[in-house]
Amino acid sequence: MATLGAGSSLYTEKSGALVASGNGATVYFNGSPTQRNLIVSGGTFGASAQSVGANVNLAWTDIDVTSNRDVTAGLWAMDGGTIAGDNLAIVGNPATLGAYATTGSQITLTGQTRIHMASPLEMALGTQHNAGFDASSITLSGQADIIGSVRAAGGIITLAMSPGSQLTGAAFSDGANGGALQMTINQSRWNMVADSTVDTLTLNQSTVDFSGEAVGARLKVGNLAGSGTFALKTDIAALKSDRLVVTGSSAGDHYLRVRNQGDMRTSGQEVLTLVETADGQAHFALAPESARVELGGYLYDLRQAGGDWQLYAAGAAEDPVGADPEPTPNPTPNPTPTPTPTPTPTPIPTPNPTPTPETEPEAEREPVLPEAEPTPAPEAKPLPPSLPANPPARPDISSAANAGANFLNISYLMDYVEMQSLLQRFGDLREKGPLGDGWIRGLGGRIDDFGSGKLSGFSLRYSGMQFGVDKAVGPTVLGAFMGVTHGNAHYGSDQGSGDQRSSHAGFYLSALADNGLWLDGVAKYARRKNGFNVRDSQGQAVSGDGAANSYSLSLESGKRVALTQTEPGIYLEPQLQAVWSHQQGNRLRASNGLRVDLDGYDSLLGRASALLGYSLRQEALQLNLYLKSGVVREFKGKTGYRLNGAPERHSFRGNGWNNGLGVSAQVADRHVLYLEGDSTSGSQFDQRQFSAGYRFTF
């Protein structure tokens, strides 16, 4: 028996550093929390127990294997030897194994264990299957910080990771020789960098992150229990994803975390299997921070289908829980099949059954490894993608898609607001004399409840200013105007908001006949800019912007009919209006990669209304009170948009009922003040607006 106390150091250049060989041979190499021991080995191992009854005990020790040989190990137990380590740290060069047990040996690690290999695919913990020997075992309990993989080949590896642990690497068990890989992860994290196979996986508020770069990794678990989160990668457009496969019993409540990807070319028709279980007993849900997943421009939910759990387009009808997919018919057998020979597995080298105990550094023995890579990727059987029997007709769209596509609504509504405000202005022109004037008008209001389709739940608060000048030329008034309208849109369910600006200008004319018949015409150009800032389903900020032009022509006619012959007088004024508009197409690109292409469209809006007024003239004051009511109808307005190329349709067609109350007052023949309140209720939108203006005659 040999004992080395705290503060001890061992250095070797070409041989193993610390070895126990022979029945009863025992070595204690114990540091302390304040004085850690150190082993630096240039040979094939840092510490090794090499026979039955040989024991190596280490505590508070750092092991650095610096050798560049093909096979080296920080800890190596063989031929029934036993190694016990408490609060160890192991680092090594490429091809170094962290802790390795062969030929019926045991390694036990406790406390805080730190094993950092050169890469996550190097072997941090491993056993070797040797015919004629009992299964070797490695047991790790406590807090672990491991970079490297775990391989149970013909052996038993038990990991009990306490809170704050992290494993970055793959895991594999071949189940040979009664071996198994059992993992219990408590409030910790496993970054799974490659396909893995585990016999028993128990999670407690822990995360398994499929962190490899390629989509399509598989985690095959014999028995699953506890509660944890699996972070998966998807390429739903290609019907590919990482996948959890449970072949035995499944239990517990687990979450699936799927990252939003706005740049994917999805159609809202896809269904993708993320989890397969044999018994369907475990329950899975999307992670709490993501009630839905945004892929491309569409939202996806999670549902159970038999023993599987699938992503499917939100808004589609769910399959009944427990409804297994329709079986695939068996293929017609080949009547004369050609037999496929069974592949011959690569033989595992057999170690020397009677190794010579190492007594001198020059006599060190090297561990025997199988020819396979330390962390092979188990070949997953390809699974056919699951497709819905009836693809959803109206999948829900994402918050960024909703905000971007709502530029269609914003442009339409701003054009409606600006044109109707101009036409209200012309009614005042008919109250004045032949002189020219200048005018200014302010307006503000709110529009909400737009339609009932995918772009519903939208509201817009707006305000604006218009001003212009005109001149009477005979019975006709010619004028020019310009203005700006600001909007603030809200996209429903606290998804976010957007800011809009419409700059417009144009010309107008108004003609009045002696019999009271009048005709108004407007030509308007507008340039509209739209920007939005929303939160996606995982709380991440998404922004985007775009701009487009629009052109409008309006023609309105009516006739004032006096209902009384004396002042004050009551009158009735029926009106008809037609407005044609063309909105150019536009492309918006959101910060999450989503591309929203808006189609151009034509609008033809008709209005039939009547105005009932009361006119009063007293010396220098002319007062006009009126109540108006009418029907508004959109006759065209069919358009569409594309989300990363996936087409969607939208329409403005519908009816509305418009009502208003207004007053205008002309003072001293040169000053006119006017106020009006309006409301519109319809199948497409509801509007409330207030406007006020001033005109000066010169």
Automatic annotation (TrEMBL):
<dbReference type="InterPro" id="IPR036709">
    <property type="entry name" value="Autotransporte_beta_dom_sf"/>
</dbReference>
<dbReference type="InterPro" id="IPR012332">
    <property type="entry name" value="Autotransporter_pectin_lyase_C"/>
</dbReference>
<keyword id="KW-0732">Signal</keyword>
<dbReference type="Pfam" id="PF03797">
    <property type="entry name" value="Autotransporter"/>
</dbReference>
<protein>
    <submittedName>
        <fullName>Autotransporter</fullName>
    </submittedName>
</protein>
<dbReference type="GO" id="GO:0019867">
    <property type="term" value="C:outer membrane"/>
</dbReference>
<dbReference type="InterPro" id="IPR051551">
    <property type="entry name" value="Autotransporter_adhesion"/>
</dbReference>
<feature type="compositionally biased region" description="Pro residues">
    <location>
        <begin position="326"/>
        <end position="358"/>
    </location>
</feature>
<dbReference type="InterPro" id="IPR005546">
    <property type="entry name" value="Autotransporte_beta"/>
</dbReference>
<dbReference type="Pfam" id="PF03212">
    <property type="entry name" value="Pertactin"/>
</dbReference>
<dbReference type="InterPro" id="IPR004899">
    <property type="entry name" value="Pertactin_central"/>
</dbReference>
<dbReference type="InterPro" id="IPR011050">
    <property type="entry name" value="Pectin_lyase_fold/virulence"/>
</dbReference>
<dbReference type="InterPro" id="IPR003991">
    <property type="entry name" value="Pertactin_virulence_factor"/>
</dbReference>
<dbReference type="InterPro" id="IPR006315">
    <property type="entry name" value="OM_autotransptr_brl_dom"/>
</dbReference>
<feature type="region of interest" description="Disordered">
    <location>
        <begin position="318"/>
        <end position="397"/>
    </location>
</feature>
<feature type="domain" description="Autotransporter">
    <location>
        <begin position="431"/>
        <end position="698"/>
    </location>
</feature>
<feature type="compositionally biased region" description="Pro residues">
    <location>
        <begin position="373"/>
        <end position="394"/>
    </location>
</feature>
